[in-house]
Amino acid sequence: MAGVTDLVTALLTPEKLFPAHWEVPAKLAEAMGYSLLAGGKRLRPLLVIAACEALGGSREAALPVAAAIEMVHTYSLIHDDLPAMDDDDYRRGRLTNHKVFGEATAILAGDALLTHAFYSVVQSSRAHGVPAERVLSIVEDLAEMAGPRGMVGGQTADMDGEQGLTDLDSLKYIHLHKTGDLIVFSLLAGGRIAGADERQLEALRRFGVNIGLAFQVQDDILDLVGDEGKLGKKTGSDVRQQKVTYPYFIGLEESRREVERLTGEAKDAVLDGGFSDASRLLEIAEYLMSRDH
Amino acid sequence: MAGVTDLVTALLTPEKLFPAHWEVPAKLAEAMGYSLLAGGKRLRPLLVIAACEALGGSREAALPVAAAIEMVHTYSLIHDDLPAMDDDDYRRGRLTNHKVFGEATAILAGDALLTHAFYSVVQSSRAHGVPAERVLSIVEDLAEMAGPRGMVGGQTADMDGEQGLTDLDSLKYIHLHKTGDLIVFSLLAGGRIAGADERQLEALRRFGVNIGLAFQVQDDILDLVGDEGKLGKKTGSDVRQQKVTYPYFIGLEESRREVERLTGEAKDAVLDGGFSDASRLLEIAEYLMSRDH
């Protein structure tokens, strides 16, 4: 799927981000581009396209939504890194947005990315003729899953949890919303572009909830026993920051079994979904389970 | 129009904000509600409804969009007040959001309001049957006019301008985008809900650009010569903060004539627009010109 990563990245350059006639302050465009082009797995765009293609939909039509979800993900990282939040100076080995552009511009760049994501979603209709009714459902899903009931809700719970999170259910709530909801959104959006029916959407949702949680548990495991060279960051940060994790609650071995169980559930979901080609989705589930970084 | 203000305010209570089955962290809902219910003129919702009704559209169908634009306006105030931005402790005589809930929650409450505004826009279709194609155009307009080319662009230019803004054109750019774009959006959205044609949308845009700028110039004038009791804040803050304003560039008398000229342009626009009833829009233009707070 390296081709997909390049296609999405090409849409995220400051020149491609906006219609040519728009006047956008140079500093703002630069700050947005800096974080959009800071690398990363582009997992969410990959999921949009894989879901769309699994139902026989057009990759071209899915690209504006794939770019949009990466904008939302990037905005959330910029705001999370702010001094008032996690106060991080580095991300993936580069200075964080506010360290380069200042806090005010970082806040505004995040706001601009979130807003512009919705513009990008609409372009799947404008530029590629996806029916308005489907695109409106994508807008509604994005607002629900990135907003107060979704990602921002999960982030709020996570911030509060740092002052004493006590049970596995609270941790699961955070994982499901802080990262899980955008993963589910990506799959549903890809499905909607391709014209998925209710049964297929339900299968994509089940697939997403399970790989999303598996992804997080694997993250928790890698932070304990991963290879620092491959991860590109120090391990053990959860322990040092006294963050509760899956291994903290159920142990390392049980956590590994949980990743396998969740991945199995995810695979069952897509195999039952009635897709024209589920192979790419199955590959992604497999990759997420076995990844070492 | 007091009825409209109450109708919109009723939609902005924490209980009414979200579907009943949504789980939203209590602290986040409280922080969102605190700023949404902090008073204010509700000018933008008023414009949505006035434009919709001027074309014979249904007030009910316009309400979700009226609520949405107030969420966007409120998010922008919360983020503007942050220590990294304008660093304000009070707004309309109440403590600002971050002074009550902390910076992290204030950032997240702003993010949540912006995201949820798009959810609310979609409800004009879901709950009131506005055609998907029209609502998608409203989503597109909102993303353009609140985003990097619109309000956030204007805010970025304003922050930069504080380090030495030199000409009237730059000031006009800031006014047009930082506040003007949301006013234009409100009018276009009201028009779109009622099914406005291109000529009517163009008239609403011209009306909006002109009253938006008149509104700002009047703000500049009131900051110089207004009545502190009526304004509910100290005058002269622009001079103390060395902010450039219309009176700074063209003098007080010329600024007053500019407000009259812009208001006249706005009135001409709606009179030429072919609306079924332009009287409410004319009243608003008149009120904005003659307001003393």
From TrEMBL, chains A, B:
- What terms describe the molecular function in GO for this protein? (2E,6E)-farnesyl diphosphate synthase activity; metal ion binding
Q: Which NCBIfam families match?
A: FPPsyn
Q: Name one GO cellular component term.
A: cytoplasm
Q: Provide a GO biological process annotation.
A: terpenoid biosynthetic process
- Reported EC number(s) for this entry are 2.5.1.10
Look up the domain of life of the source.
Bacteria
Asked if the Swiss-Prot or TrEMBL record annotates the protein with the keyword Metal-binding, the reply is yes
Q: What is this protein called?
A: Farnesyl diphosphate synthase
Q: State the similarity comment.
A: Belongs to the FPP/GGPP synthase family.
SUPFAM superfamilies cross-referenced by the UniProt entry: Terpenoid synthases
Organism for this UniProt entry:
Paenibacillus stellifer
In terms of InterPro entries, this protein maps to:
Isoprenoid_synthase_dom_sf (IPR008949), Polyprenyl_synt (IPR000092), Polyprenyl_synt_CS (IPR033749), Prenyl_diphosphate_synthase (IPR053378)
Q: Which cofactor does it need?
A: Mg(2+)
Q: Coiled coil located at which positions?
A: none
Query: Which reaction is the catalytic activity of this chain?
Result: isopentenyl diphosphate + (2E)-geranyl diphosphate = (2E,6E)-farnesyl diphosphate + diphosphate
**Keyword annotations:** Isoprene biosynthesis, Magnesium, Metal-binding, Transferase
